[in-house]
Amino acid sequence: MSGYIDLQVNGYAGVDFNSENLTQENVLGVCRRLKADGTDSILATVITARIDLMLQRITRLVQLMEASAEIAGCICGIHVEGPFLNPADGFIGAHPAADAVPANLDMTKRLLDAGRGKIRMVTLAPEMDAGSEITKYLSERGVVVAAGHSDASLEDLKQSIDHGLKLFTHLGNGCPGLLPRHDNIVQRVLSVCEHLKVSFIADGHHVPVFALRNYLGIVPDENIVIVTDAITAAGLGPGRYELSGQVVEVDEDGAAWAACRTHYAGCASTFPQMIDVLTESVGVSREQIRQWMITNPAQLLEQAHS
Question: Which of 27, 162, 194, 223 falls between 20 and 30 A from 300, CA-CA?
Answer without folding.
Answer: 27
